[in-house]
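step 3/5: co-fold with ribose-5-phosphate
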Amino acid sequence: MKQGGSDAAKQAAGESAAEAVEDGMAVGLGTGSTAAHAIRAIGRAVDAGLDVVGVPTSFQSRQLARDCGIPLADLDDVSVDLAIDGADEVAGGNLVKGGGAAHAREKIVDASADRFLVVADPTKEAESLSVPVPVEVLPMARSTVAEAVDDLGGDPTLRRAERKDGPVVTDNGNLVLDCDFGPIDDPAALASDLAALPGVVEHGLFVDMADEIHVGTTDGVTVRALSE
Ligand SMILES: O=C[C@H](O)[C@H](O)[C@H](O)COP(=O)(O)O
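step 4/5: write tokens
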């Protein structure tokens, strides 16, 4: 996963997207270091009187939102007006997400939003998607999905935890295969092939889902539409 961007650039992107949050909204709260800046900015606005509820996409974003004083809601109870989320790579209107293994819940919340804003630093932008695609799998399907990914031309690696022996376990109790396909010519076709595999809970290809991207730098933020 690409982790090269500066924190100042991520902060600029997150704070720019947070400016789109308006009174009365239900806001999807993304996961990761860039979305965290948006959550903190929303928290400061709530402190100053903004009336919103947040719909977290992970244990991490839930905790941060609570620490920031953002009231929370379940997806069952609200309709999400705006989602703000990070990405591991962005090419055209497509994203790879899941560097923090949160892509299943992120996709549910981001896809349900009326508007989905991506926040990123310039290191995330690419001509074509080529970072490994995280695929969340039911534990019993780890080997069968790995074999199927291999058949699709990918190279799957079980994601290992950094500070414990053994694999990363997602917020949903599943495992993650990071699947390296090299440059992806047709993200929509690969997304559909991965989604069709028995035992795949969700993959990290977000095809034509995002409306806008806020790319932060130390000199400012560029905002551009990703889809009509
Ligand atoms: O699972 C995690 C998410 O998809 C993140 O939004 C993504 O990995 C980007 O994270 P960061 O902003 O920390 O690079």
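step 5/5: annotate
The longest strand covers residues 115-120.
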